[in-house]
Amino acid sequence: MVAGLGAAIGGLLGGAGGGYFLSPLFRKKEESWIDIGRAADFLPGVPTKVEYIERRRDAWVTTERRSSAWVLTSNGQDFIVFDPRCTHLGCPYRWSADKKLFLCPCHNAVFNVDGQVVSGPPPRPLDRYAVKVVGGRLSILPQAQAATA
Ligand code: FES
Predict the structure, then answer these.
(1) Range of the domain at 98
(2) Ligand 1: does its nearest atom lie under 6 Å from the Cβ of 117?
């Protein structure tokens, strides 16, 4: 009887303790949408670089890192957001207003305003982030996705 009671208590404590320590491993990852500003502040036809702080919580640890993205809209309502890393080897690229092209200085890649490869070694167009507009604010989900078209 004592042994049975001890086993029950041990199982209860072990289960609770185990659950406490293991629960972060089984917790569903939350989508971390990040607000990057008022949608109306992005000028149509002009790629705009935005910088933001990305906070990631993994189990008990929260980390922060500075990041950026390129925002493009043709009409102020529909938005495309590009990952800021070149799809060749990940260097940051920039927008050339004169040439109306994205230029990556590492190995001379050139992308057009839609993120398509014009020349150079990149194997695919610029990667994109999911984007949404809620209440006039633009939010992104900064997980690179290959362009579909
Ligand atoms: S990393 Fe951009 S061209 Fe190589």
Answers:
(1) 31-145
(2) no
